[in-house]
Amino acid sequence: MFQRVLIANRGEIAVRIIRACRELGIDTVAVYSSADSDSLHVQFATESVCIGPAKAADSYLNPNAILTVAKQTGCDAVHPGYGFLSERSDFARQCTELGLTFIGPSGDVMDKMGNKSAARELMIANGVPVVPGSDGALETAEAAMTVAEKIGYPVLIKASAGGGGRGMRRVDRPEDLTAKFEEARAEAVACFGNGELYLEKLILNPKHIEFQILADRHGNVIHLGERDCSIQRKNQKLIEESPSKALSAQLREEMGQAAVKAAKAAGYENAGTIEFVVDQEGHFYFIEMNTRIQVEHPVTEMVTGLDLVREQLRIAAGLPLSLTQEDVQLRGHAIECRINAENPSENFRPCPGTTTFLHFPGGPGVRVDSLLYNGYTVSPFYDSLVAKVIVHAPSRLEAIRRMRRALEEMLLEGYPTTADFCHLVLHHPDFIKGQYDTGFLAAHQDTLLNWEKED
Ligand code: ADP
């Protein structure tokens, strides 16, 4: 096992990784920007080093600064968390070249799955169902038009390098296609420095269902069931749960097998996520793979009883998986609510500020992963996620009630958050019935916010 791990991240995920390391007796080195000197991850790590100014490009996204610290402090491995450098294959390679273990897949595997259109082709070649669409990337709007005519509108133009819903455009009519294609290309170039586009049929009102997989160096690949992440706003997830009410045992089995097949096709190693959309008839289609730990990993930890970061460390150290597929038991129901420093009534505008009072919920089946403490000032430079409240209960309805109770107990003063909005979603009849898809928030956001006013 490793002696000393550098955490190339900040916020709640850096804290989460430090916790796993401490339990394994591994020392940690935190890196931080000058805006983060008061951060929890800086205080919790064995050692911490400032790597630059607040701007992420000059600190958390600066591989050289981070790797210099890793070498100087005698680290033997680097955990990238999510976001920042976690999906940068060049960073993974640089780590390896310096003799540091990158806790994640190899740079080559990342490249293979990171280009979404190439990943799509790999899935087709390996018999994993994908959304009907283009064979590989599209050079021109005319080529996109031909594919769209064949599969039928509406279609979704997507960026091969895409992420966070950027470079993505819905097109309902042929006359809009050229303009949207150019718009998507410009956005993809601006966001990712890569304008490559492809096209998929738009699945109407799908569910977003993703499977957590674990793969070790010895060829063992298992899945840990699904997460339903259909409660999204502008492609950003807000509430996640496991298991999904929309999956029968048979569909879970089929999708789990497809996820394992996808990971094997990629030659994947470490923890990863295979994302699917599921249509109203229960057909499922691969959309992309995330080659890192995800924000919503705790719901899987709650239903499996596993520590996924610990598994990541074990895998990266060359150890075999600590369990087989037969050993995986999914117990009860887990829900996660993302608490963002945003104002829902101002269209979820980020509202960072100073935490003037803080009390986290507790009691049976409640977990909070957060970067907050009393008096902590949320930085405007980074993501607005400040806490994740996760609950576990024997059944879905009990989990819903537990989450409502947990959010009622939580006291967070100083800035608006998404906590009350999540609480409202947990009272919506369609959410309670489990009858929701990725269009739920767009359809109900205004109604929910008006409920709040009526209270
Ligand atoms: P990104 O990497 O930018 O997050 P994804 O490919 O993961 O993009 O898609 C983001 C979200 O967009 C999905 O969670 C899903 O809600 C929706 N989506 C993606 N592809 C399709 C599709 N073909 N049809 C309908 N919805 C889709």
Describe the structure.
The strands form five sheets. This protein has an eight-stranded antiparallel β-sheet with strand order 13-12-9-10-11-14-19-18, sandwiched between helices. Strands 3-2-1-4-5 form a five-stranded parallel β-sheet, sandwiched between helices. The chain has three domains: 4-103, Rossmann fold (3-Layer(aba) Sandwich); 132-201, Dna Ligase, domain 1 (2-Layer Sandwich); 207-454, D-amino Acid Aminotransferase, Chain A, domain 1 (2-Layer Sandwich), CATH 3.30.470.20. It has helices spanning 11-23, 40-44, 63-72, 89-97, 107-114, 116-125, 141-151, 174-192, 249-266, 297-304, 308-316, 396-409, 419-425, 429-433, 440-454, and strands spanning 4-7, 27-33, 47-52, 77-79, 101-102, 155-159, 169-171, 197-201, 207-215, 221-233, 236-242, 270-278, 284-290, 333-340, 342-343, 349-350, 357-359, 366-370, 385-393, 411-413. It is globular and about 60 Å long. It is built from 15 helices and 20 strands. The mean pLDDT is 97. It is 35% helix and 25% strand. It has 455 residues and is an alpha+beta fold. The protein starts with a strand and ends with a helix. Adenosine-5'-diphosphate is lined by residues 131, 156, 162-165, 168, 200, 202-203, 206, 208, 232, 235, 275, 277, 287-288, 438. Adenosine-5'-diphosphate binds at residues 131, 156, 162-165, 168, 200, 202-203, 206, 208, 232, 235, 275, 277, 287-288, 438.
